[in-house]
Write a structure and sequence with these properties.
The chain has 128 residues and is α+β, with helices and mostly antiparallel strands. It has five helices and seven strands. It is globular. The mean pLDDT is 80.
Length: 128
């Protein structure tokens, strides 16, 4: 009988329920959830970050934006701003020669900078 008392019960041995591990919908206070994005530059006016994908980031449910510069390697740097609009105003629009493309996790893209007339005619998402 003493051996039976020391045996673990099924509850103690079981891994957490899979359902508990699934991310929950955001609360009513933060209805959007998190959206990820990348920033790719077609050129680099300053010569600091390079070309291609240079930033990865998230827009939080609160609207705040966290941007992670991938350069200088290995860690880069991180900025937290009040909104995606503020991030674009401070870090994207001042460098139109970079021809920047922001791509969100749902596939939506925003393009900024000095794209040629042919590219502008093909893509209504280009902003100057």
């Amino acid at each position: 009988m003493a051996e039976e008392e020391n045996l673990p019960t099924e509850e103690e041995d079981s891994p957490p329920l899979a359902e508990e591990l699934i991310p929950k919908k955001p609360s009513r206070l933060c209805p959007r959830g998190i959206q990820t994005f990348t920033v790719a530059r077609q050129s680099d006016e300053t010569g600091v970050s390079g070309e291609g994908v240079v930033i990865e980031g998230v827009v939080l449910a609160t609207g705040q934006c966290i941007a992670h510069w991938l350069y200088p390697r290995a860690k880069g740097s991180i900025a937290i701003v009040d909104s995606m609009n503020d991030f674009i105003t401070v870090h994207i629009k001042p460098h139109p020669g970079n021809r920047t493309i922001i791509t969100y996790d749902d596939g939506e893209q925003e393009k900024f900078g000095l794209f040629n007339d042919e590219e502008k005619a093909e893509d209504e998402n280009i902003q100057e």
